[in-house]
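Dear support,

I submitted the protein below through the web form. The confirmation email said the job was done, but the results page showed an empty box. After a refresh the structure appeared. I'm attaching both so you can tell me whether what I see now is the final result or a partial one.
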Amino acid sequence: MTLNQAKIAWKGIVAQSTAGMVNVDSGPFKFVYTVFPATGRKFDLANVLSIVQKFTDDALQEFGFITDDSYKVIPIIVYKFGGVDKERPRVELEIFPLNDIDFNDLPY
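What the results page shows now:
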C-alpha cells in the first residue's frame, strides 16, 4: 500500500514536470537518470534509481509521452551520480532519441 501511494505521489511530480510538453517521437530512446542527493551518505544507485525509473516510465507511458516502456522503446537506460546538492536534491531525466536503432523488426 505504501509503494502504491508513493507511485501516485511520484506520478503527480512527473505530471507537474512535464506540463505543456508533447511527445516528439515514438522512440527508441536512451534514458539517463542522474541523482543529486542532499548528503554524501553512500547508497546504491540502482536501489534509488530503479524505483524512480519504474515510476517515471509508467507515468510517461500513461501520459502518452512514450508508447511503451519496453526495450523496444527504451533500449538504453543509464544511472548516474550527479554530485551532492544540499540545496536542491533531485533526480533528473534526460531523454535522447536513438534514430539508428530499430527494434520493431525483431521476432519477439
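Response: this is the final, complete result; the empty box was a page-load delay. DSSP finds two helices and three strands in the chain.
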